[in-house]
Design goal:
This protein is α/β, with parallel strands linked by helices. It has helices at 3-14, 36-46, 61-64, 73-82, 99-102, 116-127, 149-156, 198-205, 265-281, 296-309, and strands at 19-21, 28-32, 55-57, 68-70, 87-93, 107-111, 133-134, 165-166, 179-182, 189-192, 231-234, 243-245, 257-260, 286-289. It is globular. The chain binds threonylcarbamoyladenylate and magnesium ion (MG). Threonylcarbamoyladenylate (TXA) binds at residues 23, 25-26, 28, 52-55, 88, 90, 102, 105, 107-109, 111, 113, 135-137, 177-178, 180, 191, 216-220.
Length: 314
């Protein structure tokens, strides 16, 4: 790890600049979560609607408490056992979590990411007096999340300033965004599927998961989210010239551009977004994805593929 780059990035955050950084899920575009004008820069760089809440990242469960007013026992268990890791907890916000972070909602999303560079950055930032780093995925609004530094440059170079930084920590190992769990009711509720599965949440909390409640604003739940330029079609016959994403046990049809052949669902999640980006960089018009099946990570992958394949634009 480049400690000098991490130290410089922590200072940049304190000074009110943006820092894109690697996490194990996807790259985030970070700003000091206490600095409204820094956070405002995130919305501008992403072209993201101002009412979409951001996740606040901390280096530990204890530091995450600063942003939270009530931590039910089951949320405590999730944080203690699954952090650092690919799970975000939505909790009642403390008075420190401003409307500019939460989209005016009375809740805040918090996460301790597992990537060593992210953890080093957060720890250094906290050393300098910072309390948390607000960070959405480092893509323009509605686009595919970046899973490596080159993809962040491609998405954001023209929308950030010379004082903003992009840290390179290699390719994200999970590859899809964190699982989001609403912890504001009696039972945990899944708001976004991810690598932490519903059964893991049930096992850690000892509770069954709620399927009730009013829909909460989650920008990832817009149907057009995560969409590449190419048209994405699921589980149909690929035609010559199409891009093709499927598990390795599916042979590549004649005349088709194989974009990824992951050997299992974990690898499928890891390579999916990069494969969709490759399709766009090759100018491929249609991508056929054969959706994986049979385990819970497949459900999370299916969720992202469905959004990528949606024609709706929001
Ligand atoms: O894996 C991840 O979660 C990545 C990395 C960078 O941590 N971040 C990420 O952020 O995916 P973003 O903003 O692209 O997606 C976070 C989702 C958004 O859809 C947002 O609406 C939802 O989390 N969210 C944040 N705070 C929330 C809250 N208080 N209530 C409900 N949803 C919330
Ligand atoms: Mg996002």
């Amino acid at each position: 790890m480049n400690e000098v780059a991490v130290a410089r990035a922590a200072q940049a955050l304190i000074a009110g600049h943006l820092v894109a950084f690697p996490t194990e899920t996807v790259y985030g575009l970070g700003a000091n979560a206490e600095d409204s004008s820094a956070v405002e820069k995130i919305y501008r760089a992403k072209n993201r609607p101002a009412n979409h809440p951001l996740i606040v990242h901390s280096s530990s469960l204890d530091n995450a408490r600063y942003w939270v007013r009530e931590m039910p026992a089951f949320a405590e268990a999730l944080g203690a056992q699954l952090w650092p890791g690919p799970i975000t907890l939505v909790l009642k916000r403390s008075r420190f979590a401003g409307d500019f972070l939460t989209g005016g909602q009375d809740t805040v999303g918090v996460r301790v990411p597992a990537h060593p560079v992210a953890l080093a950055l957060l720890a250094e930032f906290e050393q300098l007096g910072g309390r948390g780093v607000a960070a959405p995925s480092a893509n323009r609004f509605g686009k595919v999340s970046p899973t490596n530094a080159a993809a962040v440059h491609q998405e954001l170079d023209q929308f950030i300033s010379d004082s903003d930084l992009i840290l390179d920590g290699g390719s994200s190992t999970v590859g899809i965004e964190s699982t989001i769990i609403d912890c504001t009711s009696l039972l945990p509720r899944v708001l976004r599927l991810g690598a932490v599965t519903a059964s893991m949440v049930a096992r850690v909390t000892g509770l069954s998961l709620s399927t009730e409640g009013a829909p909460i604003r989650v920008s990832g739940s817009h149907s057009s989210h995560y969409a590449p330029i190419a048209k994405v079609l699921l589980d149909v016959q690929a035609l010559p010239g199409d891009g093709f994403i499927a598990l390795a046990n599916h042979p590549t049809p004649e005349g088709i551009v194989r974009l990824a052949e992951p050997k299992d669902t974990a690898e499928y999640a890891r390579v999916l977004y990069a494969a969709l980006r490759t399709a766009d960089s090759l100018g491929i018009e249609r991508v056929v994805a054969i959706t994986p099946k049979g385990d819970e990570l497949s459900d999370a992958i299916f969720d992202r593929l469905q959004r990528a394949s949606s024609n709706l634009k929001s």
